[in-house]
Amino acid sequence: EKIDMLDFAEFVAINKFDRKGAADALRDVAKQVQRNREAFGKSPDEMPVFGTMASRFNDDGVTALYQALLPRLSALGLKTKPGALPLAATRHSTHQVPIVPGARVRYLAEISDGVRAYKRNAVQQARLAREVQQLRAASRMLHEGKPDKPRAASAAATLALEREARLDPHAKKLLDQWPQMQRAYAGDEYVVKIRDKEIRTALTTTTLSGTKVRKVALPGYEDHGEILKWLMLDNVPGSFPYTAGTFAFKREGEDPTRMFAGEGDAFRTNTRFKLLSSGMEAKRLSTAFDSVTLYGNDPAIRPDIYGKVGNSGVSIATLDDMKVLYSGFDLCSPSTSVSMTINGPAPTILAMFMNTAIDQQMEKFRTDNGRDPSDDEAQKISAWVKQNVRGTVQADILKEDQGQNTCIFSTEFSLKVMGDVAEYFVHHQVRNFYSVSISGYHIAEAGANPISQLAFTLSNGFTFVEAYLARGMHIDDFAPNLSFFFSNGMDPEYTVLGRVARRIWAVALRDRYGANERSQKLKYHVQTSGRSLHAQEIQFNDIRTTLQALIAIY
Fold first, then answer.
1. What is the domain extent for residue 212?
2. Hey, is 339 helix, strand or coil?
3. DSSP code for 383
4. 250: in domain
5. Is residue 251 part of a domain?
6. Which residues of the chain have pLDDT under 50?
């Protein structure tokens, strides 16, 4: 039917010109229009066929179509004025910057292949290590039991050397370090030297019965193949591929909790924050915004807004609201961290938060010095705040498109703004505040099981990586500022979700992207889920939530 329309159309627009094959479509349609009009004396490029991207501001393809339509509409009697825009130099969109360059669109398949290849290599290296050990044992036994037949022992030793030569250097290094690792974890303390300073960590905890339980228990393998496979696929916490954890030991100074709160106006939620964090040295605040704020609206008396203001979250519309919300909390303290669950208007809310933190330090300077800071001092304060403020803004637009739908702008535009924020963080050395929390929680709430939740979430994470790399950013500049957020439930797969996520991320970042150790360490937090709780068995809900919290720290 569209082909038939070409017989009657005076102008033809091919929209979504950023899609694959758009240039071919423009050429083919222009050729068809040329045939229909029998305009063989003209080039197909002269046909009134335009490639446009209507969703993009100031698109030159749309401008070219508009400028071509204007004189025709004027000839038909429409009153027009001379346009202010310069004449478009082309008939199609030229500023095409795809989220992921065409040459890298298979990134997910290539990452999957890379992770599978790593596991296959681990199994192969383990087999070689086992054979080396077995051949050396056979050579030793032949030498001891058959001293009159040295050729058999020599042949076994030669085969062992041949197999050992096929072990890659990384595997050899792991096996060589195994005895040292056993000694390091066998004592009562783990000692690490950092800048000529010894840091000691207790390796055991004592039960009420007096039994010493090891914090890190190494497997009792003697087979070199099993040892190597464990080292390559699991390893101790803090060592690649970080399956057991990104850090060598868990923090003991505070409980791994964060208080999620938001209700009414900023004053009421501020009071709630103070109540929840009372008596706690570390102030870990998690901010829930109302649906009016989540969709980027101001409070209003409109019927569809008025009843939602401050409902199931705090209403924040101005910078003054943000200042009230976090009043009484030192946002630059190392023990203060703020998480903000917001996506569509995240850049605006993030800007409000940063300005609130800066204004806190400006006010502190005025109190301490009795005067306003100079321009140079104000710039130094601003830079210091950005480098020291801690927290996370969710800002995951891909998850919104898939599971929650608090979208305000197009996915492409939102991704561009996310990239702008990430680049700003790089340039201003914002290292303790995460510019995105790549979320699986909402995908699970929308119906995903543990496996598909993890698959979608990691896919989104790798998409952000590719999008940021396409902007020219270096992997080690932005990857440490990516954090993840998973849901929990009663399914058995949740017990290993974190282990699987850490291993996949570490292998992909190291082997595909060449990232450094800090970038390879996947950081995430988990929230327990209300969808697993039952109204009929309400007395067991505390047990369900406790089990989910226990699983979350694996």
1. 108-233
2. strand
3. H
4. no
5. no
6. none
User: Are the CB atoms for 446 and 403 separated by under 8 Å?
Assistant: yes
pLDDT tens across 424-465, in order? 999 999 999 999 999 999 999 999 999 999 999 999 999 999
Q: Is residue 59 part of a domain?
A: yes
User: How high is the pLDDT of residue 144?
Assistant: 85
Say if residue 313 is in the same domain as residue 447: no
**Amino acid identity for residue 326 in this structure:** Y
Angstrom distance (rounded) from CA 289 to CA 296: 11
Given phi > 0 = left and psi -120 to 50 = alpha, else beta, which region is 9?
Answer: beta
Q: Where would I find the H helices in 166-254?
A: 169-186, 224-233
pTM, to two decimals:
0.85
Residue where a domain terminates, one of 76, 96, 116 = 96
pLDDT at 1: 60
Beta bridge partners of 184: none
Q: At what angle do helices 411-427 and 346-369 cross, to 10 degrees?
A: 30
Residue 448 neighbours by CB under 8 Å, 6+ apart: 403, 440, 456
pLDDT tens digits, 163-185: 999 999 999 999 999 999 999 99
Give residue 130's identity as a one-letter amino acid code. R
Encode 511-545: b = buried (16+ Cβ within 10 Å), e = exposed.
ebbebeeebbbbbbbbbbbeebbeeeeeeeeeebb
How many whole angstroms separate alpha carbon 353 and alpha carbon 61?
A: 38
Amino acid in the structure at residue 249: F
CB of 481 within 8 A of CB of 437? no
The reported pLDDT for the residue numbered 116 is 97
d(CA 314, CA 264): 5
Contact 49, 33 (CB under 8 A): yes
Angle at 298 between CA 293 and CA 301, to 5 degrees: 120
Q: Confirm whether 133 is domain-assigned.
A: yes
**The residue to which tokens 């992207």 are assigned:** 513
Residue 86: predicted pLDDT? 85
Do 130 and 175 form a contact (C-beta atoms < 8 A)? Answer: no
Q: Is the peptide bond before 241 cis (omega within 30 degrees of 0)?
A: yes
Which residues does residue 92 pair with via DSSP β-bridges, in sequence order?
51
Q: Say if CB 502 and CB 246 are below 8 A apart.
A: yes
> Do the Cβ atoms of 288 and 260 come closer than 8 Å?
yes
**Angular region, 313: left φ>0, alpha ψ -120 to 50, beta rest:** left
Number of structural domains (the chain) is 4
CA 57 from centroid of its chain's CA atoms:
28
